[in-house]
Amino acid sequence: MRFPVALHTDDGKSFGVTVPDIPGCYSAGSSEDEALDNAREAVLGHLELLAESGEAIPSPLPISRHRSSGLYPDAIWGFVEVDISPFLGRAEKINITVPSLVLRQIDNYVQCHPEEARSRSAFLTEAALARMQREQP
How far apart are CA 107 and CA 134, in angstroms? Predict the structure, then answer.
């Protein structure tokens, strides 16, 4: 999942980072790259705490929504990408019905794009999460 981050600097030498979609998630670094690396660790830490307390992982909003809010007027925008699968809970086996043509297309996609989808289950999970994320207000 990609979380937008707002980088701030007063002197061009040190950078603060705010992760608008995760309340209370901040970080910093002595360069833009270090700040983004540290922000990724901060995001992972916050997601771990949310998972431990049984809270939902927030869905990131588009940068344009954050930019139009006026809360980050001088921000440099970037993204932090994290694997949220460790925070989704244990896997559960389910039985679903899928048209055979669609199932073959899914299997073909997974086989041709192993870097994007490790398995049929991973593909379906990621597709469902992406769809639900698009539906967020």
Answer: 24
pLDDT at 136: 59
| DSSP-derived 3-state class of residue 65 | helix
Contact 3, 62 (CB under 8 A): no
Q: Taken in order 88, 105, 60, 34, is the CA torsion positive or negative?
A: positive
The one-character DSSP state at 92 is: -
Minimal CA–CA distance to 15: which of 40, 41, 33, 2? Answer: 33
Neighbours of 61 (CB within 10 A): 16
Q: Using an 8 Å Cβ cutoff, are 27 and 14 in contact?
A: no
Do 25 and 9 contact (CB within 8 A), yes or no?
Answer: no
pLDDT in tens, 4-34: 999 999 998 999 999 999 999 999 999 999 9
Q: What is the pLDDT of residues 62-94, one digit of tens each?
A: 999 999 999 999 999 999 999 888 888 888 899
Rounded to two decimals, what is the model's pTM? Answer: 0.71
- E strands within the chain? 2-8, 15-18, 26-29, 76-81
